[in-house]
């Protein structure tokens, strides 16, 4: 399975910014830390709400350290974290496999956080690492070899679950994960979203390059702000009709033909419809907060109606069927940045050349 790129192509970089996954470089280990097998390391990154000691003076290590499996590493807190006013003092965890991957200094009321299991880690490694863990809020398994989510079924307190480019095809085992805020299943074989229908607080769903077709499970997830469904079999957008908090929606290279269901989503800021079958954009004219609209490689012909969307900052019309006359008028009327290829210029040049060769009467 090809590695999924972490960032989304412009102008939709906002999606990546809303889901920072990169972690900071771990601090250096204490001078007398217990010996670890190759490939295993533990970072004691300070909790910003609970630690005042300099990074050069880590807490004393226990007298004896449990054996640690190779290939597992802890990371410092990621940008996704923020100080919590209810943070408590670090708590010890009696779990030999967990100690090698969990930053114990970050164990507060938000629960421990496994933020980095190495890319390509086997399912057996993952199962061993999670065997004695409970109360996790963040779990990043992106790029690993996990197949069956049954192995994490008990971790129903998870709020951020990252599964991009894994072998997962069934979300059934996480049906009770009603605390989910972020789910990333990009590049997986998942084809059904029904198991997450109860995650009513979810704000971010990244499901591009999956086998998803039916969106009815999302109809009641009205806190969703970011949805990425690019390169899926989605066609019917009616389940999104009531998701009035949506700010970012990516539907590139889907079978979408109509955007009528989006007409009342007045908080939309970024909408990408590249490579879809959209002919009519009039339902979008009332979206007064829309800043970026991408319609590249669509069969759109009538772009004149877009001249009323003066709030737009970026409009991508590359590869559309708009005539050179329409584009010229739009360029003159609008303050936004137009992303265009040179097809319309070639068309205008060809017409001019043809006219010059026409016999004069």
TrEMBL record:
Annotated keywords: Leucine-rich repeat, Repeat, Signal
Span of the signal peptide: 1-24
Gene3D superfamilies per UniProt: Ribonuclease Inhibitor
Entries under InterPro entries matching the protein: LRR_dom_sf (IPR032675), SDS22/Internalin_LRR (IPR050836)
Biased composition (Low complexity): 43-70
Region annotation (Disordered) ranges: 27-92
Name assigned to this protein: Internalin-A
Species of the source: Enhygromyxa salina
Gene for this chain: inlA_1
